[in-house]
Structure formats: structure tokens, C-alpha cells
Fold this protein.
Amino acid sequence: MSTGAIILAGGLARRMGGQDKGLITLAGRPMVEHVLQTVKPLVDRCVINANRNLDAYAEFGVPVITDRLAGHLGPLAGLSAGIESLDTDLVLMCPCDSPFLQGDLCRSLIKACIDEDVDLVVPHDGERVQPVFLVVQRRVKSSLDDFLAAGERKIDRWFEQLTIKQLPAAGFGESFRNINTDEERVRAESELLS
């Protein structure tokens, strides 16, 4: 099965003062580059979903796609654009602000989606589902687009329409650590540089 990945960088980053989080430097490299370095070798094709600074994102050597629906509608709008652009059997989605993403988590999500033949696999960290890290089958696209067209945005509401598997992922806690404030950025940078 062909595999693709979409790295979400299309949000407004309100908690970071509106800065473009994917381009914020962490240990000498933009955050999106940390994620791209982990994800790109694991899939056949990779894209970045961004809605601003498109030229800056294009410098990372993978296609940059924008949401097809206006209004910053959230991760599902990015996922829809990614599925359309990638044209692969499976699509891995992850955010640009998770520089500690582990390749083994991505591999486990992809493998589970193939082995279980479910619509979607999402990790469960032992306390809760981590919905912006997932793998979907291409076949979910019409369901996703109908959901968005109906004005829906909440990921877990969409999950209710699909056959899903929650992947036990308590051992991958670092993967879900994202950078939402400057304090978190400083702390993460000191860890990466130590």
C-alpha cells in the first residue's frame, strides 16, 4: 500500500502570539523541519499543509498545500487537502509543533491501519486519545468532506462515523509533547541542545 504524510502547519497559533509555529526555530532548525526529518523517510510522499508563508515552507523540499476551504477550519480541513494532494492509499497526519515525534509511533500507526483494515488509527496515550496524530485510509475522504460541508469541525465527532482503532501508545508520550508557548519552546530547546 502506498503511504503519504501531511504535516499540519496551517493553524493560527494564538497561544504563540500568532507566530507561524512551524517556522519558529528550535535548536537551530524550524520546528517543522524536526517533524519532517522523522516523517519523510517513513512514507512514499509527504506534504506540508500551510495557509501562510508558503514560500518559506517550500524551502523544505516537499510540496506545500493550502486548505481548500476558507476560514482556518482546523486539522480536518488540512487532512482533506492532504488526502486530495497525496493520492496515496494511507495518509499519516501530524502537527508541525511536535518536534519530539517518534518514528516508531508513526510506523505503528501505519502498520495497525493496514493489519486491522480499519478506516482510521489514532493513538491513545494512556489517558486520552491524541486526535491530531492519526493514519487514515484514502476511502474516508468523502465522509470527511461531507462532515466539513455540514459545518462540523470536531475531530472526535467525525471519528464516530468511521471504523477506528485506538492504538495503545503510553510508551510514546514524548511524541505528543507540542510547543504552544515560548516557555515550552525554551525548555524543549534546552533539552535538545543538552
Notes: The longest strand covers residues 3-9.
